Input
Amino acid sequence: MYLNSPRGSNNKLRETSNNVQNANRLFDSQNNDAAGYQIGDNCRPACKDANNNYNVSEKGATNGTMKFYQGSELYIDWYLQHGCGVGQPNLRCQIILQYMCESENPSIRDGTGQGKQGQAGGNDPDPTAEETAELERGYHETLDYYEACAQRERNKGLYTADRQMEENGGATSTRQNPNGNGRRRGGNRHGLECPEERDYYPYWHPTPWHDIAVLTDEPQLRCEYYRSQSQNVMPKGFCSIPEHNNPEACRSHEGEWKEQAAWGEDPPDCKGGIKSRDNHNGNVRNGHPQYYLWKIPAHVKGRCVIRARYNITTGDFQLGSEANPREEGTELSGIKADPFFMDRRSNDPNPNNRRRTIFQGRPANPLVLGNDPVADWLHLGTGSSDTSRLLQLQINTAQHGRTFQDRTHSFFVLPRPENVPAHARIVNYNVRGRRGNIVQVYPSVEYDFVPQDLTVEKGTYIHFQWTGSDANNNGNAGNGRAGTDRSNLVQVASRGETVPLPLEKHTLFFDATSQPIDQDKRKLVDRFAFLDQDEIVTCNPESNDDNAEDNCKQLNGASAYFDGGLVQMMQVGTHHVISTRNNDFSNRSQKASITVTGLLLPSWALVAIGIGSILAAGFLVYVTMAIYAVCCPGSWLFSKKYRPRVLRWVLRQERIDRLEERRRQLLSARRKQWMKQANVQAGETEDGAEVKEISVPSSSWLQSSTRFCRSWGVAEQRLTTLLYTSLNIAVFFVGFCSNLHGGFNASWAFPIAKGGGYTMDLNFAMLVLPTLKSLQTAMRRVSTSREWIPIDDPISFHVTVACLIVLGSVLHIAGHIVHMLSIRFAPVLQQDPLQLWMLSFDEQISGMTFFEQFFNFHSRFAPVTGVLLTVMLFAIIITALPCARRGSNRLTRRFAGFNVFWRVHMSWKWLYIVLLLHAPARLWIWLFFPAILITIDRLLLATHQSLYLALRRATLLPRDVLALSFDVPQGFVYQAGQYILLGWRGEWHPFTLTSAPEEGCISVHIRAPENLDWCSALRRRLTEEAPAQVAGGNDTEHTTPKPGMAVEYRRHLHANSRVIYNMPKVSSVDSEQVKVVYDDAQAKCADTQPRLLGRAAANRFQSSCARSGETIVSTVRQEELPPGAVVLQVTGPFGAPAQKVWGFDTLMVVGAGIGVTPFASIMKSVQLRSKQRETILKAVAAKPSAWRSRQPVQVDLGSTPGKEPSGTESTAGIEKLLEEMVVVPKRIYFYWICRGQEEFDWFYDLLHDAAEGPAAGIIDITLFLTGEVELSQVKKLPCASGQFFGRPNWKRIFKQNREKHKGEHVGVFLCGSPVIGEELARQSEDHSDLPGTPGCTRFSFFKEHF
Output
């Protein structure tokens, strides 16, 4: 192992030869003698005599000591003979970097004399205090430390193979050093190091060395052990009697076992080393050597030394190898099977007797390898006596498991300069190498700047400093004075050039173009180029003698040591530098690049800036909105609901009052204009438009394509789900294949996660679309009976998409968890802070902890946003479950049931914002077009303004059903089967309209049991609390109303806000009594005459002071309203599948319980449309009920010119026109499923009125009572064709209807339980012919969802 920077000594001092003179001077390196660098000199100009020989007596000789500041970054680089790192196939290894300073040895020094060859410090026998104190001797470990090592019993539990150990050497005897260290026959002592401590890490006794870093090929297995056992954090024990090495032996001999406290420093930085080749000295990757960037701690000070150890072993020791096979009955397990912990059980019981003898196999104790074993390894011989096929293995058991080391010359650590800010970065910039060509310096290196490619941010301080020796071999190749090291630094335009830049173009230390007269910077450039030679010698420009001191052109007049001091880098850009003396193109190159970037902030600062920018942008938008609100008081921004709060702080109340008055005026003008347009449109509708013949849609390509699917039992709805699922599968495989090799180490978990993510992108783009009410309504107006469109069953499709999102989330999360686990348990590789090796992304993230992966700034904190998305999605899904949404269990009911569902679902906007933060690179593409549709829906929804409702009557029906009737709001046009959103107390809930469009009012029926919090609260408010308050009583003290009670209401206008509110009517006889009526009738509309679609009653626009339909222009608090006031609002109407009934001649409608509401509206509309027909027919003297029994009459509406049509022809033509203009189905089968008589009583009158009338002949009502019913209480529905107990036999019903309506397209509509819907869908499919079959009979199924 060879240290290059700082300069590794390899025991060299001031040798004038290329080889080390005394390899035992300070430590046992096990390295090549030619390695290492001489100690630095600081003679002025050189430590040379008149004959150009090295002169140690010259002032400054051996004093070219490097100096580094506390907190500075020191670039430590080395290379290895045998390679190392994660993935190195030929060996297992560890690299340990340590330091020792004056605090451990106050007399630490390099020495000035090499001593005799092979003698430690010049003296082979055991050292003495007097000899140790001699200044010419090098001195690292203390004498006390060495003597304790030599006296202490060696650890006899260690693996020593077949080596004969010297038992008198104490801990100086090891497998690598079996003869001891100076204890027997003048053995080979290596300075004052302890061989046992040198060969084993972490050591179990105190050591003077502090740990910096450990680089291993097995970080996931070893690093935790190294960190926990390091003396940085763990105290180390020793005995007061030095001979004993464990607490038991120490105490048994009356000794005291003591502990030396831990250093109190951070544990060593343990990482996986970067792989390097064996037998390949030099660079590791991308043209750069292996290095470690050490930030010198603030507590380190004084003279210090760095030690690097390199331990290697082969794979022969791995259990299961050829040398260490598994044997039945003797197999070790757990930690004992780990060769890292191999101990004396694998030692040879008869050591030192196997050299070059035939290896007979493993003895009783499982010896792994013998020394230079000879055997017929290939089993090619004919028997045990056949010695013709023997091979000898080159195995030295003292070196199979070998520790190399190198140490730097000592250096000083100085306090951080006071004028350098504590947060400023200090980077050491040095020179490595020595004089000579590649052959002469090998295995050292030639000159080079270190680091060769440096990137720092603006404001960083670079400490330019280097040292060299004047004791190099005079015969070594080089430039300038023989035997000397010199380097300067000048700037060049590019790394490919040799000619320096003139001062006018200098950019490294200052910008010469903008600062041409900066004298200090000009002097700095001069100093780095000429190395202060003018202060040392009188330069002779005419001299061309390479060995002349006055030849300053070759830097001969400079010292080998140069300290350029701290230079703050302020010029952003890449700057290239060379040394003019050593950059000899064809022989050697000394070039480098220094890149200065803009200010680089830490991740937390970038996050803070990002958040601050978002907040600042939000504040700017907020202020802009406030200004716009003031400038345009008629906009929604100035409404009380959305008005920026800052206006209250910056505007006076008088100004706000004036703006509010201006807003009222603007909105009043808009309402008048809107009413005018509404009247005009209604008039146009009344006058009639051009009559166009309605044609039956012909077969389409879609019907043809679905015919095949239907033949295999795949109906339209299933086909839609199947096609969408297939699309998800296709998108998954696109994501999978496009990321197949994008994961960590090509992990399969990553493409699975990405495939799931792609499907989530698709499904999140589709998720909101089925919930866009205005878009649904518009599409239903366009489409007719094409039930395959998912929008016809939006909630079902919404749930399907949500289920696919859950599936995609599971794949995405599971894939990423497995991927994160593979990263976490991968080896932690050595980092490349200077970015010299160009580590791959996999290598950079290898071994990251879960915390680091979660809060990784470079991944935009995607795991954090992913967890947030998971929590939000989980909350949305859980609260959407029926048991939570309906509050059908105690837990969800306690947490407000539907309110929680609604509020959590309303967080979908935040969900999509977090989605964009989670995956911004691709998700916006998926969301672009859905965002357009959402915008269109919001624009359409803006036309459905939230209108105030004028309540007429609230009627309480059996089983807590509440019937409400309202005035028709201005411009409120709807179709039978549509629904509205009813708003009260800030909550909005969907309810189907039970009134017909032809009526003069709108009505809804609300099931309001106690477990439905909002509905039951509305029921109590309208039927109990409000009447009690108006009557002057306490709203908490009132009698429970009985079914059948009806409360009349009157509308009122709030004076200041123009809010419509409703109050229970007070009797004219007694003003203290509320008008409450108990009867069996439900809330009926006052207008008995049918009105044309879209027309309000004649008096609808007369009252300007208090009318239904005022838009929300302001809000009012409940306490500002009189007691008993109720404010109700409506938004809509919105399309529903039931409105498609007008596209079918034959209908099967099924209502279960409260699900009868949309069909009651439809049947009432049918009756009123039929009445309109009769009214028109009466006008032409037609019989009122002639259309009931008539057969279709083919009438030629054309006539002979000049001939008046007959009365019959005229009537037939009008009937034909009426069929086209006033559409009424020809046959309606209505099936009502009730659980009991009370449920039947809900809508008895409603259905009775709907079924009796001109259309009674086309409506067939069948009632099914499925619950326990007392026969005496059964009420018969007069208009019903059948009334049964039990559940319907849908198979029989469909079969009968198919026989009655062969060749027809029958619409099947349901509002009720999904269980019934599954049966109806199945029967519709079973009784339908394939699309395109001549004369086919089809049943198309539609179901209601909210």
In short: DSSP finds 31 helices and 38 strands in the chain. The first strand starts at residue 2 and ends at 5.
